[in-house]
Amino acid sequence: MPHDHPHGHHHHHGHSDGHGHAHGHAHGPGHNHAHGEHLRSHMHAHDEAADLQVLATQFIDGFVQAADKQAYLRLAGVPFEKPGAGGATALKLVDVELKTEWQVGTASPSFGSRELSYLPFPGPMITDRTNMALVYVSMDEKVVTDIRDVLMSRKAEFDK
Prior knowledge:
Largest sheet: 4 strands, antiparallel
Structural class: alpha+beta
C-alpha cells in the first residue's frame, strides 16, 4: 500500500497492480538502506496481498461455476487428505465454506483518546469480498484452511 510521510523521502518502484496502475512507495523516518539488494527483496505486502486476493476471487468464481466441484479442486491441486495428529493422511477434506463480507466503514485508534476514529463509507465505497475455507477433519481434530494459504503455497511451488 503506498504510504507517504511528511519528510518526502520517496522511492518509486515500478510495481503495477496488473491493471496498468503503478504504485509509489515512501519509507518512514530513519529507514536508511543500501538500494541494490533492498529493491530486489522489497515486495510491497499490499501488492502481494492484492494479487493473492484477485487470484482467490478468480478461484472462488471458478469453483462456484464448476459443474464438478471435486474435479475443479483436484485440478487446482487442493489436497483432499493432509497430515494431522493421526498421521500423514489423517485429515480429510469434508467441507468448502464460502463467506461474503461487506466492508461498510473503517475504525482506528484516535490520537490521545480511548475512542475509535470511525469513518462509515458512502454507498459507492462499500465493497464485498468472498473468502473460501477448506474444512478438514479427523477423529481427533478439525482444521480450517483459508484458500489464500493454499493458493500461496501453490504459487510458491510454481515460482521455484
